[in-house]
Each structure stands twice: as C-alpha cells, then as structure tokens.
Amino acid sequence: MIVVLSAAWACGGLDATTGDAGTGSGSGSGSGSNQMSAKAFCVAETNRYRAMNGKPALTEAANLEAYADTGAMVDYTSNSPHSHFSSTSGGGIAFAENECPGHSGWHLPPGGDMNALVGQCIAAFYGEGPGSDYNTHGHYINMMGAYAKLGCGIYQSGTDVTIIQDYGN
C-alpha cells in the first residue's frame, strides 16, 4: 500500500518477526557530515515522537546504522522495497524496518536540507497513527515498538534520497 502524506510518498514498514509488510523500498546509506547529522537527527526525532507517547528512548546503534546504510543502497539500486532487509532476515540484528524510498518521491528539497527531509519522512511514519492493521499502521507500530536500539541509514543519488530506520534490541 502506498500512502500519500504531505505531498510525499510513504512506504510500509516490515517486521522480521511477523513477516508483515506494507509497501516500500530502499534503505539508506550515506556519507558526509550532512548525512551523518541527519542520521543522529533521525534517532532524536523518532525519540521525540516516542516520548510524546510515553515510550522509552531508543539508543543510536552503529551496527544498525551500518546495516541500514547498506540496505538503503541495495534497495535503491534494485528499486525493490525492503529487499535487503527481507533477503538477510534483518541481518540477525534488525527486527523491524521503516523506509522512505528515493525512487518513489523522496527528494532532497531546494537548499539541500537533509534534516528537513528526514523530519518529513518520520512525520509520515508517525502520521499513520495507532492501530492494529500492520498494512495501514506499520510505520507507526514499528516506531512505538518495544525496541531498544535504532539505526538510520541514508542513500542519496542526485536529489533522490532513501531513508531507512532499522530497529533492534
């Protein structure tokens, strides 16, 4: 299912423990100070939403971040939603994944503010709201899940940007 939120596309999350999936693609890899800053912002912004819902903060995890980076590149170049996560069963470290795919409408805004784009992506996840239907509320369910760690990855090709969140314990 593709959900249009704030004039941008959001894809469904994927949970390795249940195999439930919405639609989606790509995970993210990136380099450079703008993207590294955006990865930390991704974790902080996710924790802000979790705090609003009485959930404990997630710890930024380097191993999940590296996994998300690889996945973003793999998924973007293959144009296949969650292909890296699915084919590796979360790599033994990631138990759920959210993703905003660059090939489905996620583009760096004028001025190149990566944090703004990451914020829009996370807002789209949160915007699905609570519910039990994973295909409709999967991103939100993953964001509020009983995880302890989060790794955010970013892959950029031109103005296309794929953003991924991998959740672990």
Cα separation of the termini: 27 Å
- Annotation field: number of helices: 5
Classify the beta-strand content into a percent band: 15-25%
**Biggest pleated-sheet summary:** 5 strands, mixed
Q: What gross morphology would you assign? A: globular
Count the strands? 7
Residue stretches low in confidence (pLDDT < 50, at least 5 long) are: 1-33
Provide the spatial order of strands within the biggest beta sheet. Answer: 3-5-7-6-4
- Based on secondary structure, the structural category is alpha+beta
Indicate the percent of residues in helices. Answer: 25-40%
* Oligomeric state: single chain
What's the average pLDDT? 83
Secondary-structure element series: EEEHEHHEHHEE
Structural Rg: 14 Å
Describe the structure.
The chain has about 170 residues and is an alpha+beta fold. It contains 5 helices and 7 strands; from the N terminus they run E-E-E-H-E-H-H-E-H-H-E-E. The strands form 2 sheets. A 5-stranded mixed beta sheet has the order 3-5-7-6-4. Strand 6 and strand 7 form a beta hairpin. Helix 1 (about 35-50) packs parallel to helix 4 (about 115-125) and helix 4 (about 115-125) crosses helix 5 (about 135-145).
